[in-house]
Amino acid sequence: MTLRYVIYLEKGVKEPDETLKRLLDCLEEKENKKGKQSMATGIYKRGNVWWIRYTVIDGQQKRERSGDKFQDARLLLAQRKNAIGHNKEPEIKSIPNHLFPELTEKYLDWIAGRQASAKVKGYIIGQLKKVFGTLPLRKFNTAIVEQLQTDLINKEYKASSNNKVLNVLKAMFAKAVEWEMVEEAVLKRIRKVKPMRDEEKRLRYLSIEECPILVSACEPHLQPIVITALNTRMRRGEIFGLKWTNVDLKNGFILLNKTKNGERREIPINNTLKRVLQDLTRRQSWPGKTGQRHK
Prior knowledge:
Elements: H1 3-10, H2 18-32, E1 43-46, E2 49-55, E3 61-67, H3 70-85, H4 100-111, H5 118-132, H6 142-154, H7 159-178, H8 184-191, H9 210-217, H10 223-232, H11 236-240, E4 247-248, E5 253-256, E6 265-268, H12 271-283
Helix pairs in contact: 1-3, 4-5, 6-7, 7-8, 9-10, 10-12
């Protein structure tokens, strides 16, 4: 469907026949050939969001956020141009001036039940509320967030903890843009703040020879836990929360319904882990017979 055809329908005229459709298509194709920015003539993309650009009655250029679909942007541009063609100023939806506590309340409601880390994020958000108070969302900028980093450094926060606070703040404002509580320009200013380098963080993998040494060094009741971790790469909380209802020895997989990122996962059981789990079913000692968590 061409832009001219959309405007044609907007005027309330009956649907054109095939000949007129082809004529309208040809007219727009000729317009598009005037430059290589064919579809970008009034429509462009920033990040994952489509924007439209048009000239209003007084000659000023307006830019307006549409959404994540090109067709929606195209239709919105057609509506704006149609209104201007009838000497009407387009009615642009404006975003109210929301305060930081409004965002924290809505974000906490959203992560509850969706993210396994909701409790930790809730604590961080509580600290952020004390720092920013009732600051309007539009007032957030690069300098304010960098000052937050500096304050946390002065409080002797580790780089990893500092980055965790920054990531929560960025995630909150990403949702604020999605919920139309603030403009995307504010999010871009916050995202300019770079995470701190964690010099203490060092990744080291166990060698194949070291794995049995680690297992043998553990107390007997800890060995199944360590073997599970080594053979599945499951997180500590996932292992401690494991129940027999999650384990399918017949088909050879562990089903995790609730993970850190909220996604369901199926983890294959290899022969080593299968022998350990089968031994546990005989002993009925870990986890408990009724599916309770091991303590």
